[in-house]
Design a protein that fits this description.
- By secondary structure, the chain is of the alpha+beta class.
- Helices cover 45% and strands 15% of the residues.
- A hairpin with a 2-residue loop joins strand 9 and strand 10.
- Helix 4 packs antiparallel against helix 7, helix 6 runs antiparallel to helix 9 and helix 7 packs antiparallel against helix 8.
Length: 404
């Protein structure tokens, strides 16, 4: 018999408890204030989808930043060589789930993983300023006719005058307006495309030929996503990130962890706190002479939410642990995202139903979590694409995919 049931390694359990404690003590008490969305206050912090309408006074952000620094959480998730704890992908997931229990983002350093492929010169100009909070980037991949299938992208980069000229359009690019530089994926070899014909470029935001237009979506009154036009944008060859032709693989590797797996962390974090709130609410709320908690329909909704949390977390733990072993986790990331999106959205819908009118109130977390989880079934690759990826793996890998 095992000495104990499955548990996280001690260092990750300690990280989980630290993040949970900070979120409970510092972030959650500010949530109601954050959601009043006072136009005289400011936005701050990094995390989640960035689709939450909320502001705080500058002094609150300063205090949260100080807390993140003093606890070591500001840089905890970075590789050791950049001042982090080196806790790997599983550590990234564990902390992300806890951070997502609150709408108020703790100001922690966030970096697009593709930037770790910078050469030494690029590190000085781009990666290190991002780590210091001095620069921000946007990931420019999705196109009007190549969203779910990025290998079909039409944006081209043609060698010219010791560099490349980029022409094309991207759509639904998050935070493009405030980005100091863009990580642009463009076709350099139309014959090879995803198999060595797509390259990633670092393009400074003020490069001539770039125009940005806002895209308004239902998720927020603010603009978070944009359409970008690259018209005869010339950049030197030194702006190639990684290898020429290696951009597609670089982008997909980043997306597997920082997009697809992270959506599982979002769902588990949202639902974990939502279930806590719902359990308290249904025990206090009396309808027709009895607490809601005595209604079987309510009890079974709570059971469904619990099962979804457990399922999402288990799938994500496996994906993260395999990634830390150096395995190709694209299939497991697709599973994590599909479960996070579908199970997360379904359960949050149940929680909204339990809270009734309060669940739709914009000064209450449920509606905001609902928006993000519904978007999670589209952004980063819709449910249907994840199913295609998973079914391919079923026929390719057979029982090794599902046997214990």
């Amino acid at each position: 018999m095992p000495e104990r049931l499955f548990s996280l390694p001690p260092e990750l359990a300690e990280l989980r408890d630290l993040v949970r404690s900070v979120v409970d003590k510092e972030c959650i008490p500010l949530e109601a204030k954050f959601l009043t969305n006072n136009p005289e206050w400011v936005r701050g912090g990094v995390g989640g989808e960035g689709l939450i309408d909320g502001t705080l006074p500058a002094e609150d952000w300063s205090r949260l930043s100080a807390v993140a620094e003093s606890t070591g959480l500001a840089t905890a998730l970075l590789p050791e060589e950049y001042g982090g704890l080196g806790l790997g992908v599983l550590g990234y997931y564990v902390a992300s789930e806890e951070l997502n229990r609150c709408l108020v983002p703790l100001p922690v350093v966030s970096v697009n993983g593709a930037l770790y492929s910078c050469n030494e010169e690029q590190k000085e100009e781009y990666l290190l300023p991002v780590l210091r909070g001095e620069k921000r980037s946007c990931f420019s991949q999705t196109e009007p006719d190549a969203g779910s299938d990025p290998a079909r992208m039409s944006t081209r980069a043609v060698a010219r005058n010791g560099g490349y000229v980029i022409n094309g359009a991207k759509r639904f690019i998050s935070n493009a307006a405030g980005a100091d530089f863009h990580l642009v994926l463009a076709v350099t070899d139309p014959e090879k495309r995803a198999r060595g014909g797509i390259t990633m470029f670092i393009v400074d935001g003020d490069t001539p030929g770039i125009s940005i237009s806002p895209l308004h979506t239902w998720q927020s009154v603010r603009v978070h996503q944009y359409e970008i036009s690259y018209d005869e944008v010339w950049i030197p060859s030194s702006k190639v990130l990684g290898q020429v032709g290696g951009g597609f693989a670089l982008g997909q590797k980043m997306l597997a962890i920082q997009d697809r797996l992270s959506r599982g962390a979002m769902a588990a974090g949202f639902l974990s706190r939502g279930l806590e709130m719902a359990v308290d609410y249904v025990q206090d709320r009396v309808t027709f002479g009895a607490p809601m908690s005595e209604r079987q329909a309510v009890q079974w909704m709570l059971v469904d939410v619990l099962l979804d949390i457990k399922s999402i977390r288990a799938a994500c733990y496996e994906c993260a642990a395999r990634a830390d072993l150096g395995e190709d986790v694209r299939t497991f990331a697709a599973i994590s995202k599909l479960m996070g999106g579908q199970f997360g959205h379904s359960s949050m819908d149940k929680l909204m139903q339990l809270f009734g009118g309060m669940g739709e109130a914009m000064d209450f977390p449920i509606a905001h979590w609902y928006h993000q989880l519904r978007h999670g079934r589209i952004g980063g690759g819709p449910d249907e694409i994840q199913r295609i990826l998973i079914q391919r793996a079923i026929f390719k890998h057979g029982p090794s995919l599902w046997l214990a």
